[in-house]
Design a protein that fits this description.
Length: 281
């Protein structure tokens, strides 16, 4: 199947892109999610606005917090010293997206706008308390990652809005990790778990946990966080966190014939422990 006819325009500024998008347009950056959907006519825009060469959307900087442009590629993020220092879990997640060709062209903004439940970066963004920065012709706004991801392939992004950047708190004083159970063919996450642990004298002073892949969206896991906080991350705390995790993700679980909900739920607990061990080093 082939896409319906559409017009194409390359923008050289954010303002130009927003002015050109129209009522039924889509922004095009890497295109690895949008173009296959168009080919199958799951998405039928009549206008594509190419934002891949807008320099203002490509930067990565660290100044108190970590700021990443919406059109920064997965490869750029995975290789960035600033990301590796401030939020190593995000560098890990972006390094696991697709293959090298996908990472070289696919962008973080496009990835989260598509909101594939089996994608890797959203889980880290939710765990680490990222903020999504959005602009339209009517102005700009910011949304926390936990509120940005609404449901299966559904976000808070409205028609005509563009993700201009993503910011994250500096997590360099924490121990962070992202780990997943990859599908053997696609490498998408059957289960993905991100943790960010702030340790104080061997005690976990704060735990941030999110699960993706097993769920229709990346889910913040308050129960597991509470079980880990104040503990030495011993076996009893890990067991309590695993039990709590089942309730945290229960309403959001998804599955298929090969990997049903019960299996994904069990693997979420297994990979929570692995992520904690990886974060501890």
């Amino acid at each position: 199947m082939w896409p319906q006819q559409f017009d194409y325009q390359r923008a050289d500024s954010v303002e130009g892109a927003l002015a050109a998008i129209g009522d039924n347009g889509k922004f095009l950056a890497g295109g690895h999610s949008l173009l296959p959907a168009m080919k199958l006519r799951l998405s039928t825009p009549d206008q594509l606005v190419d934002i891949s060469r807008i320099d203002a959307l490509r930067g990565i900087s660290r100044n108190g917090s970590l700021a990443i442009g919406g059109a920064a590629t997965h490869a750029e993020i995975a290789a960035s010293a600033a990301v590796g220092s401030a939020c190593p879990a995000l560098a890990q997640a972006c390094g696991m997206v697709g293959d090298q060709a996908v990472r070289n062209f696919g962008t973080l903004g496009g990835n989260i706008a598509h909101a594939d439940p089996a994608s890797d970066p959203p889980t880290v963004l939710v765990a680490c308390g990222a903020t999504i920065h959005i602009q339209s012709v009517d102005g700009s706004r910011s949304v926390g990652a936990q509120d940005f991801f609404v449901d299966l392939f559904e976000t808070d992004l409205q028609d005509g809005e563009l993700i201009t950047g993503i910011s994250l708190p500096d997590c360099s004083d924490c121990q962070c990790a992202y780990i997943k159970l990859p599908h053997p063919a696609s490498r998408y996450a059957i289960v993905g778990v991100a943790v960010c642990l702030k340790m104080n004298g061997g005690i976990c002073a704060q735990a941030d946990v999110a699960v993706g892949g097993a769920t229709v969206k990346a889910v913040k896991c308050a129960g597991a966080e509470a079980a880990l906080t104040g503990s030495s991350l011993d076996e009893a705390a890990l067991a309590a966190a695993t039990d709590a995790l089942s309730d945290d993700i229960g309403d959001w679980l998804t599955g298929d014939v090969a990997y049903p909900e019960a299996y994904r739920s069990a693997m979420a607990g297994v990979f929570l422990k692995r992520a904690i061990n990886a974060a501890k080093g």
